[in-house]
Automatic annotation (TrEMBL):
Lineage, broadest ranks: Bacteria, Pseudomonadati, Bacteroidota, Cytophagia, Cytophagales
Pfam families per the UniProt record, alphabetical: AHSA1
InterPro entries assigned: ASHA1/2-like_C, START-like_dom_sf
Activator of Hsp90 ATPase homologue 1/2-like C-terminal domain span: 10-133
Protein name (Swiss-Prot/TrEMBL): Activator of Hsp90 ATPase homologue 1/2-like C-terminal domain-containing protein
Similarity remark: Belongs to the AHA1 family.
Native source organism of the sequence: Cyclobacterium qasimii M12-11B
Length: 136
């Protein structure tokens, strides 16, 4: 099963792309709640390039590496990758007037409920939107 989350961001697509792809930005938005953080991000944004975004609870109780390999990259348009567990993800950047619609589609994993996964990924996307729109 695939799940899609989306948001519309009031910014130029170049800014949205930069904030999504540059480690200096990723560490500021890549977490689902204020109790979590992303202390490091490595991002080799090219086909067969790897990424590793570290996510940790601020209290140190748990953490994990979100990792994968890019399969397709079209600047300001599309990013596709395969997570280390084999699931596929596609992110589309769609320009509409003065906004960018960001659509993120991912294959659900079998451990957590689909709705729980959707809510978690949407929360990260909402953090991303807030981060981009707060940058001048």
């Amino acid at each position: 099963m695939t799940i899609t989350v989306k948001t519309s961001i009031k910014a130029r697509v170049e800014k949205v792309w930069e904030c999504w792809t540059k480690p200096a930005h990723i560490i500021h938005w890549n977490f689902a709640s204020p109790e979590w953080t992303c202390p490091s991000a490595i991002n080799d944004l090219q086909p067969n390039g790897v990424f590793n975004w570290r996510m940790e609870a601020k209290n140190g109780s748990m953490g994990f590496d979100f990792t994968g390999v890019y399969s397709e990259v079209k600047e300001n348009e599309l990013i596709a990758y395969k997570m280390s567990d084999g699931r596929k993800v596609e992110i589309r950047f769609i320009v509409s007037g003065d906004e960018v619609e960001l659509l993120e589609t991912f294959e659900a994993e079998g451990t957590n409920a689909d709705e729980q996964q959707r809510l978690g990924w949407q929360a990260i996307l909402d953090n991303f939107k807030n981060y981009v729109e707060s940058k001048k």
